[in-house]
Amino acid sequence: MTFPILQFGTSRFLQAHVDLFIDQGFVEGSGKGRIAVVQTTSSPESARRVAFFDSGAPYIVRVRGLDGEMLIDKEVSVASIGRGIDANADWAEVERLFVAEARWIVSNTGDRGFELSPGDTLDGIPRAFPAKLAKLLFARFTADKPPLTLFPCELIEDNGDKLRALVGQVAREWKLGADFERWIENDCLWINSLVDRIVSEPLEPAGAVAEPYALWAVENRPGLVMPCKHPAVVVTDDLKRYERLKLFILNLGHTYLAEGWAKAGAAPKTLTREWLADAAVRADLRQARSRPRGARISRQRADALPQSVPRSLSRGHLPQSRFEEGAPLRRPDRARPTIWRDRRATTTRGGAGERNGLSSDMCQRGTDSVLLK
C-alpha cells in the first residue's frame, strides 16, 4: 500500500472533512488507507491520534443536524487513513513518504501554523511548518521527483499563495538555490481553498460529531488534479465569490443573531435553533438580509451553496451552537458588530484548527460592508 496523500495535522476537522471525502471519493479507486497523517507538534492528544491512525483502523464521524427540512443523525465509517507518523520522532520516514510516494499534500496546522521560527535551519528538524515543507520539498527536488500539489486548509485568506511565499522565503534564507526557488514557484501547485464544516465534539480515539453541511471550495489552477470527487467539493474559477457567500450568509447571519441575543439579555446556553423559533427574530433577520447589498448576495445563494445552508443558522443540534456568555459580542463605538466566534474553536476542544472557515479579519471587513452600509 502506498500513500499518495500526506496530511500535516491531526485535527478532528480534517477527519470529518477532507479525510471523509477521500474515503468516499478517491479518484484512483478505493480510498481505504490512502492518507498518511503527520504529527507536527508535541501534543499528547495528537500523539494518541497518530498512534491510532498508524493501526489503520477506521473511525466514526457522526453526522447530526438539519439538511434542508430533514433531521440527520447517522454514523459514517472512515477508513482513508492508513498511517500515522510523528515528525519529531521519525523524520526519516516522513521524508521518505514525501519524496517517494506523495502526490498531494494537505495541511491544517492551526491559526499559528504559518508562523516562522527564527532558529530553524536545514540541519535538524525545523519547528515551523513552512520550514518543514521547505526541507521536505528540497529533498524531493534533489531526488528529481515530480512537483506536488499542496492544499493548505488553514484559517488564512489566500492560504495557498501565502504558504508558497513563506516556503520561498525560507528557501532564500537557507540559500537553497535559484533552481529550487523556481521549482517551488512555478512547478508545484499551491491551491487556495475555503473549507467549512462545524465539528462540534471529538469521538475517541479518533473521529468527531459534525453537521451535515460541508464545503471544500478549491480555486482552479492549470494542471490541477483533485485527489477526490465528492458532492461537497467544488472546483471554481471564482473562489472569492464563495468566500463572500459564506461570509454574508453564514457569518453575517450568526453575527446578527448574536447581536440580538446580546441586546435581549444574553441568556446563557441559548441554542440558535431555540432563538430562531421566535417569529420576531426570524422576521428581523429577514429584514436585515433584505437591505440592498444583503439582498444581492442572497439571490446568489441558490446556485452556489447546498440546500442545507439556509437551515445552517438552526445548527442547534450540535452542542457548540450556543450563544456563549464568553463570546465577544460587544459593539465598539462605531457600532460595528464583532463576528460571533461560533465558527471558531472558542467553544470546542482541540484548538482553532478544529473548525475552519474565514479568518476573523475577513469576517470583520465583510460585516462592515454589508450590515452597516
How is this structure best described in words?
It is a single chain. The chain contains twelve helices and 15 strands. By secondary structure, it is of the alpha/beta class. The strands form four sheets. It has a six-stranded parallel β-sheet, with helices on both faces. A four-stranded mixed β-sheet has the order 4-3-11-10. It has a three-stranded mixed β-sheet with strand order 9-12-13, with helices on one face. Strand 6, helix 5 (129-142) and strand 7 (149-152) form a beta-alpha-beta unit. It starts with a strand and ends with a helix.
Produce a short descriptive summary.
With 373 residues, the chain is an alpha/beta fold. It has helices at residues 12-16, 18-25, 44-53, 91-100, 129-142, 159-173, 178-187, 239-263, 272-276, 279-289, 292-299, 360-371, and strands at residues 5-8, 35-39, 59-67, 70-78, 81-86, 104-107, 149-152, 189-190, 193-196, 199-202, 207-210, 215-219, 233-236, 270-271, 322-323.
For the record, the CATH class of the largest domain is: Alpha Beta
How can the largest sheet be summarized?
Answer: 6 strands, parallel
Silhouette: globular
* CATH fold-level label of the largest domain: Rossmann fold
Main β-sheet, spatial strand arrangement: 5-2-1-6-7-8
Helical fraction equals 25-40%
Supply the helix-strand structural class: alpha/beta
Whole-number tally of structural domains: 2
Quote the distance from N terminus to C terminus.
56 Å
CATH superfamily of the largest domain: NAD(P)-binding Rossmann-like Domain
Q: What string gives the helices and strands in order? A: EHHEHEEEHEHEHHEEEEEEHEHHHEH
CATH architecture of the largest domain: 3-Layer(aba) Sandwich
Number of strands: 15
Strand residues, percent = 15-25%
Low-confidence stretches: 294-373
What is the count of DSSP helices, taking H or I runs of 4+ residues? 12
* C-alpha Rg (nearest Å): 21 Å
Mean pLDDT: 80
